[in-house]
Design a protein that fits this description.
By secondary structure, this protein is α/β, with parallel strands linked by helices. It contains 12 helices and 10 strands. Strands 5-2-1-6-7 form a 5-stranded parallel sheet. The chain binds NADPH dihydro-nicotinamide-adenine-dinucleotide phosphate and ketopantoate. It catalyses: (R)-pantoate + NADP(+) = 2-dehydropantoate + NADPH + H(+).
């Protein structure tokens, strides 16, 4: 099975490394500067169980007729439109496309162009691309869940290709439900850490437990009103993770905000707030967090325009 991974950042790099280590036929589709790094240094990957550097195949565009069996999309949301354009020549009649992004809108965007070839996918991993361009898996968590959007069967060949050491793989008959569950969690985590600007343990110590529980409730209410009630297990998992005393947990949105730009704010928070409006669910904490990150982005744009002027 020919696998194309779009993006060799944190998730693309980490899951790609696992697949390559297991001997899968993987090519990365990346932008020029990353291609240069990968060609000269290989793909550096570290996880609690392994540190390695792998020779990888990479391309910066897809030649007409160079069709792949499986395309894994591992970019952040703002890159999606560009990626939809660049992967077109790689998509044949039997190609399947597996996006790993958090949120939901990207699924709809991909389906508009590629129809039933699009699978639902989500990953649980805490990963980053460090300053040496090494994909780092920071904890032992490394799971991937996928499924047909209509609940149908995922081809055995795809399961077999992705079922490798270092990836805890599962297939779901309700991948849209799983995606909503994760979205509700990620959004609540984003609200909490961006609004109160800190780690879960610090927010709790400052007296924020009630607000954390309200943020979870708000996001889960939107999911329920959209027809995807978060189950008890999912809800309890979110509460446990966001109310663990002393926890250093922060959302990736907040980490991006601290680095300068909360890149997925509109995709994670903005889209959920938009859907909340359309189903009539009030989301005051979500709205406040969204306004906060939008203000940050406006100020940042003004400042960088000033600097470059
Ligand atoms: N990191 C994590 O722990 C987790 C992330 N996720 C989700 O996974 C998704 C991906 O996140 P993550 O891997 O962290 O993001 P990263 O920013 O680490 O990686 C994305 C990569 O995409 C590359 N990229 C951007 N535009 C293009 C393009 N047009 N063509 C090819 N490559 C491109 C970027 O490379 P460059 O800009 O250098 O070209 C970057 O290295 C997000 O939706 C995130 O929310 C989900 C679970 C956990
Ligand atoms: C919560 C976590 C780390 C789990 O994978 C995640 O998905 C994210 O921060 O984007």
């Amino acid at each position: 099975m020919r696998i194309l991974i779009v993006g060799a950042g944190a998730t693309g790099g980490a899951f790609g490394a696992r697949l390559i280590q297991a001997g899968r036929d993987v090519t990365f589709l990346v932008r020029e500067h990353r291609a240069e790094q990968l060609r000269s240094d290989g793909l550096a990957f570290s996880a609690p169980d392994v540190t390695t550097r792998l020779d990888v195949r990479c391309i910066t565009s897809v030649a007409q007729g160079d069709v792949y069996d499986l395309i894994i999309v591992a970019v952040k949301a703002p890159a999606l439109d560009a990626v939809i354009g660049t992967i077109r020549p790689a998509v044949g009649d039997d190609t399947l496309i597996l996006p790993l992004l958090n949120g939901m809108r990207h699924i709809e965007s991909l389906v508009e162009v590629f129809g039933a070839r699009v699978l639902g996918g989500l990953v649980k991993i805490v990963a980053t691309l460090d300053r040496n361009a090494q994909a780092v898996q920071l904890t032992t968590l490394s799971s991937m869940t996928l499924g047909r959007l209509d609940g149908g069967d995922v081809p055995d060949a795809v399961r077999e290709a992705l079922d490798v050491p270092g990836i805890h793989l599962s297939v779901s008959g309700d991948i849209i439900g799983r995606l909503w569950e994760k979205w509700a969690f990620i959004a609540a985590a984003g609200v909490v850490s961006c609004l109160f600007r800190g780690e879960v343990g610090d927010i709790l110590e400052a007296g924020g437990e009630e607000q954390i529980l309200r943020a979870i409730e708000e996001c889960e209410r939107v999911a329920a009103a959209a027809g995807h009630t978060v189950g008890r297990h999912g809800h309890e998992g979110s509460v446990a993770m966001l109310t663990e005393p002393g926890s250093h947990f922060t959302s990736s949105l907040y980490r991006d905000l601290r680095l300068g730009d909360p890149l997925e704010a509109e995709h994670i928070l903005g889209d959920l707030a938009h859907r909340a409006r359309s189903v009539g669910v009030p989301t005051p904490l979500l709205d406040a967090a969204l306004l906060q990150v939008r203000t940050h982005r406006v100020a940042r744009a003004r400042t960088s325009a000033g600097i470059s002027a």
